[in-house]
Amino acid sequence: MTRARQRWEHRQALTDAVTANQKAVELATLLYTAGQTDFLSLLEAQRALYTAEDALVQSSRTTATNLIALYKALGGGWESAAS
Fold first, then answer.
1. Is residue 78 included in any domain, yes or no?
2. Does residue 12 lie within any of the structural domains?
3. 47 in any annotated domain
4. Distance, CA of 15 to CA of 9 (rounded, Å)
5. Cβ atoms < 10 Å from Cβ of 10
6. What is the full DSSP assignment across 30-47?
7. Cα separations (Å) of 15 from 4, 53, 54?
8. Which range marks the domain in which residue 10 is found?
């Protein structure tokens, strides 16, 4: 259970990171369109967002895969198509 809680906390941190990076991209876009920053700053903000989103998706995939493995190990939930 401790490991499950750690994974949940990690996923929550990744979700928070994605939200923060979305706000950073919005701000960088506003600053760029107002001429107050260079295009590289906008690109760096977008890169950080994509990196955070990728980490969140990988975490979700790992969690789902582990949950399926647990269900299979416990022998529950799957019935053959012939039944």
1. no
2. yes
3. yes
4. 10
5. 15
6. HHHHTTSS-HHHHHHHHH
7. 16, 8, 11
8. 2-61
